[in-house]
Design a protein that fits this description.
By secondary structure, the protein is of the alpha+beta class. It has two helices and seven strands; from the N terminus they run ββββββαβα. It is about 20% helix and about 30% strand.
Length: about 130
């Protein structure tokens, strides 16, 4: 599945992709030098999504997981889509066909892009301290 991601205005903002069984993650470079990460996870017949923000180009699993009211750590953090929608650690059914799965994953990606990006704007990473 390939879809354009809002905010990825050029190839220079695309910073990487990771895929392994039951996980797909894309990393985008932001104008402020941080990185946005969007991940899709699958377990048996269920799918979910997470989003993260980090100072460095790290793997999403290395970021601490916060609930919807968490505070940003200095190096980065990640949030679950379910928390952003008020549903906690929610997983959604993958469906019974490839078309069902595709539609569910597209819905998750759209929700992640809208909800997580707004959350990160309200809870930015603290500025780095200058060495001195």
């Amino acid at each position: 599945m390939t879809k354009p991601v809002g905010g990825a205005r050029s190839r220079s903002s695309f910073a990487g992709v990771a895929a392994r069984p039951n996980l797909a993650c894309v990393r985008l470079a932001s104008a402020d030098g941080s990185f946005l990460l969007f991940a899709l996870r699958r377990h048996l017949g269920w799918v979910t999504g997470e989003a993260g923000i980090a100072r460095d180009p790290v793997e999403i699993e290395s970021l601490p997981l916060l609930d919807a009211e968490g505070d940003a750590e200095s190096g980065g953090y990640r949030v679950r889509l379910g928390d952003q929608l008020g549903d906690g650690g929610r997983w959604w059914p993958a469906g019974t066909s490839e078309q069902d799965l595709r539609e569910r994953l597209e819905w998750i990606v759209l929700q992640l892009r809208v909800k997580a990006t707004a959350y990160f704007a309200r809870h930015p990473l603290p500025r780095r301290r200058e060495a001195g």
